[in-house]
């Protein structure tokens, strides 16, 4: 009598066995799976038997013409299919990481934030990876990433596109402000509700442009405001406020220069609006190109550091 167990009856299922099981479920028969896998019918049958023996479960229901997965087989198939995809992605990613980071990236940002905060980061990344070319698309509206053919974008404000992946990199302090000339002529609002009697400068690209939210006693307070001037461009709105057209709301960093020169001053500081979140977003994909993943990580780290200084 042979004291050694039979190898084929006791070996642990291999990666090839699991791939064969997936082929059996998807092809519907051993014969079709053997053709798909370019394996003999005997080896396909042996792979299935080995997996069922290892799991202790009947994974496939056999009939005279086809093979259908059992309930346990369907659950097993789903898990194995996902695992095999992850393994394939890992192989691809590992291969990508050994190559030089190269190619073209299209990046979206807003007209004011992009030149000030994104361009220096792009320049630093290009110095590190000289084989990368960058196309920066500046637009204050939230562009559809796929339609605009953007690899990634910086979004300032609440996100609404559930199809995009995102990582939050910080938040921007927002303030209400006005020109001294305007306040001298029309008076200084003491509470957010006083804005109902004032002219306001509206940014039309915001979600609810004529409803401004402040914080009062730790709770949000939304005030309807009347627009005497409106624009889809942040710079134009800020300049209109500085020219005493009306009262505005903006991220603090945008008007820092105007504050330093005295062209505008802050108002309602004890009711400061909630900060605006900043995200890096990119289209959903099973595997991002190495240059895209590398730039997202680089940009996120730089922005997190830079935005902390703006609080």
TrEMBL record:
Residues 13-70 form the HTH lysR-type domain. This is Transcriptional regulator, LysR family. It comes from the Bacteria. Its EC number is 4.2.1.1. Belongs to the LysR transcriptional regulatory family. It comes from Acidiphilium cryptum (strain JF-5). Keywords: DNA-binding, Lyase, Plasmid, Transcription, Transcription regulation. The keyword Lyase applies. The keyword Lipoprotein does not apply. Pfam families: HTH_1, LysR_substrate. One of its GO terms (molecular function) is carbonate dehydratase activity. One of its GO terms (biological process) is DNA-templated transcription. It is an enzyme of class 4 (lyase).
């Amino acid at each position: 009598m042979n004291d050694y167990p039979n190898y084929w009856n006791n070996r642990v299922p291999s990666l090839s066995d699991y791939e064969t099981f997936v082929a059996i479920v998807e092809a519907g028969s051993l014969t079709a799976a053997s053709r798909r896998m370019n394996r003999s019918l005997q080896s396909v049958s042996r792979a299935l038997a080995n997996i069922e023996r290892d799991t202790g479960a009947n994974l496939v229901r056999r009939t005279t013409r086809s093979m259908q997965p059992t309930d346990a087989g369907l659950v097993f198939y789903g898990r194995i299919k996902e695992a095999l995809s992850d393994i394939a992605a890992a192989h691809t990613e590992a291969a990508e990481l050994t190559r030089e980071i190269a190619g073209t990236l299209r990046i979206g940002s807003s007209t004011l934030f992009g030149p000030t905060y994104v361009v220096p980061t792009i320049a630093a990344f290009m110095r590190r990876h000289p084989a990368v070319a960058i196309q920066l698309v500046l637009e204050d509206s939230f562009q559809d990433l796929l339609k605009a053919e953007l690899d990634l974008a910086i979004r300032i404000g609440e996100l609404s596109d559930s199809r995009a992946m995102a990582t939050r990199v910080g938040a921007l302090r927002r303030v209400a402000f006005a020109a001294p000339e305007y306040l001298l002529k029309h008076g200084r609002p003491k509470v957010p509700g006083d804005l109902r009697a004032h002219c306001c400068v509206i940014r039309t690209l915001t979600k609810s442009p004529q409803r401004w939210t402040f914080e009062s006693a730790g709770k949000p307070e939304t005030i309807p405001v009347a627009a005497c001037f409106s624009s889809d461009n942040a710079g134009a709105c800020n300049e209109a406020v500085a020219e005493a057209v009306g009262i505005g709301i903006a991220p603090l960093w945008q008007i820092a220069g105007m504050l330093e020169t005295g062209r505008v001053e802050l108002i309602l500081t004890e009711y400061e609006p909630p900060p605006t979140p900043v995200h890096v977003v990119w289209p959903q994909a099973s595997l991002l190109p190495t240059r895209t993943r590398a730039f997202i990580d680089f940009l996120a780290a730089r922005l997190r550091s830079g935005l902390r200084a703006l609080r």
